[in-house]
Amino acid sequence: MAPTDYKTVFELGIGSFPWSDFLIPSVFIVAGFGIYKFSKLQSVQVVGLAILALSILIFAVLALAVTSNYNVLRRAYLAGISSVIEGRVENFQPMPSLGPARESFSVHGVNFSYNAIDSTPCFHNGPAHLGPIRNGQFVRVHYEYDNGCIQRLEIRADGIPSTAERSDYAKTADTNLNRVLKTDPRVYRMNLGLTFVALIISLCCNFDWRHYARYFLIRGTQLSKTWEIGIRAGFFLSLVTAAAQLVWLLTERPRTTADLEAAGLFSLFGIGFFVLMDLVIRWRFRAKDRSTESTLGS
Predict the structure, then answer these.
(1) Domain end marker among 62, 78, 94
(2) Contact 176/98 with Cβ under 8 angstroms?
(3) pLDDT tens-digit readout, 151-164
(4) pTM score of the predicted model
(5) How many CA atoms, within 13 angstroms, populate the side-chain half-sphere of residue 249?
(6) For the chain, how big is the Rg over CA atoms in Å?
(7) Given pLDDT bands bounded at 50, 70 and 90, which one contains residue 221?
(8) Closest CA to 124 of 26, 20, 25
(9) Residue 62 lies in a domain
(10) Per-residue pLDDT reduced to its tens digit, 5-23
């Protein structure tokens, strides 16, 4: 193959159909069916049936929307509704290690921008950090002018990165990500907030273990001594783990007032959700207990 020959590395077609869009609703369909089929509690079966029905509805709506969008883009490409630009890749901005996964590059002043982890049928340089685009390559881009959809991408043969080059690039990106995760204050604040939430929840579980043990019991069953020891040991282990994690986060790096304020604010949302959920469950437990007492009394 001559160096001036181009090789197609992407073309809008069946292979670029966004199948991954259906993964999450499919998981919920399976989960909902499993909960409905195998649960012994009627209330849990109702929840499972609701999850199943809602997931099927979302799957159907998503299938209609995704397929319709794909057909529109595919028909435009097959009909030749394309602009073509050929030249060197310039100003390539790969997706950052942390934050919005936007990438961009230009060819002879024509700018292209996309989300690198999007599930669009158009080219988006995926998988993340393993895509073929690099600065300085000679490319030929077929795209739809109105929406910027890259329908076909050809790269000159001598500019296509090898598997080893892509692997090295991905390793460098992973190294940068690990560095960002260790140094970025946003990550530290989120970890600190989540750890504080975990500590509060584990404290509640240890102080009122009989109540939280009921989360794992089928109504009317008695807690054996073995299960009691196991549940209490699990609650205590979670408390020790959360406390150790909190101590490590507070001592492993210098903290600022902004760090503590942001972590505290973030933790309030988690604690608030937990308290609200627990209040609802306590109310349901009390209602069931009153119902049982009334039945026994009569």
Answers:
(1) 78
(2) no
(3) 999 999 888 887 77
(4) 0.60
(5) 22
(6) 27
(7) low
(8) 20
(9) yes
(10) 889 999 998 888 988 889 8
Position 100 pLDDT exceeds 60? yes
Distance CA 265, CA 196 (A): 11
Does position 1 have pLDDT exceeding 50, yes or no? no
Are the C-beta atoms of residues 181 and 174 closer than 8 Å to each other? no
Residues 110 and 36 in one domain: no
Please name the amino acid found at residue 77: Y
Query: In terms of residue numbers, what domain contains 94?
Result: 83-162
| CA 291 – CA 258 distance, rounded (Å) | 50
- Let me know: does 291 contact 285? Beta carbons within 8 Å: no
Query: Is the previous residue joined to 127 through a cis bond, with omega within 30 degrees of 0?
Result: yes
How far from each other are the two terminal CA atoms of the chain, in whole angstroms?
Answer: 90
Tokens linked to 19: 């199948």
Average pLDDT for 167-196: 79
Domain count, the chain: 3
- What is the residue whose two structure tokens read 């001594």? 225
Placement of tokens 């929307």 in the chain: 65
Q: Is 107 exposed, middle or buried (0-12, 13-18, 19+ CB in 10 A)?
A: buried
Q: Does residue 154 sit in helix, strand or coil?
A: strand
User: Alpha helices, DSSP H only, in the chain?
Assistant: 23-38, 42-78, 163-183, 185-207, 209-213, 225-251, 257-297
92 and 110, same domain (yes or no): yes
